[in-house]
Amino acid sequence: MKKLFLSASFEETAGLLHTLEEELNGRRVTFIPTAAATESYDAYVHAGREALEKWGLIVEDLEVSTATPEEVTSKLQQSDLIYVSGGNTFFLLQELRRSGADLLIQSHIQEGKIYIGESAGSIILAPDIAYVKAMDDCAAAPELSDYRGLNAVDFYPVPHVGCFPFVESAAQVIAEYESTLPLVPITNAQVIVVNGEQHRIVEI
């Protein structure tokens, strides 16, 4: 059964993890910071890592843009949870595909491994990520031939609604796609929790 925790700002909502899983102490999480590699601001990556450690999780980094295929496979296989941080969604998708991590993550999700996404890490699970071009620069991923996401959910997360510095870009995404796509907008204080095929929004 799918167990997904899709956030906009993990640092702010990490306290809600108990809504998905009660006991996390001592479990291993593969931490993928790749989406932030093209960003000038990445404090949220460090904050996310610290928030996981406060839950007693053992955090092991996996930078998929530089890891070998063997490293990608073994780290994902050996972990109890997968965490994918925020940043540029298009660069993230490009590197997940190039490394083969996309198919592995899809498989682990289907097998019931807990997946935690933050911003780009949440968006990446949608059927397609083209809808967030107003939020992220697709030029950061010149090798990306199409925008098919990991398709682990049948909706389209829109993070940071009403939250600086994404107030205008999130509103633009909603205005452009709310009539054609099943968008699920969330603020930085909200999380989309997925159990099986059901999803709900919880907030702090």
Task: Tell me about this structure.
There is one protein chain. The chain has 204 residues and is of the alpha/beta class. Helix content is 30%, strand content 20%. It has helices at residues 10-13, 43-54, 69-78, 89-99, 101-110, 120-123, 167-177; strands at 3-7, 28-32, 58-61, 81-84, 114-118, 156-158, 183-185, 190-195, 198-203. The radius of gyration is 15 Å and the shape is globular. 44% of the residues are buried. Belongs to the peptidase S51 family. Keywords: Hydrolase, Protease, Serine protease. It comes from Paenibacillus silvae. This is Peptidase Lmo0363.
Based on the model shown, name its key terms.
204 residues; alpha/beta; seven-stranded mixed β-sheet; two-stranded parallel ribbon; 9 strands; 20% strand
Entry summary:
This protein is of the alpha/beta class.
Q: How are the secondary structure elements laid out?
A:
Blueprint: E1 3-7, H1 10-13, E2 28-32, H2 43-54, E3 58-61, H3 69-78, E4 81-84, H4 89-99, H5 101-110, E5 114-118, H6 120-123, E6 156-158, H7 167-177, E7 183-185, E8 190-195, E9 198-203
Parallel strand pairs: 1-5, 2-3, 2-4, 4-5, 6-7
Antiparallel strand pairs: 1-8, 8-9
Helix pairs in contact: 3-5
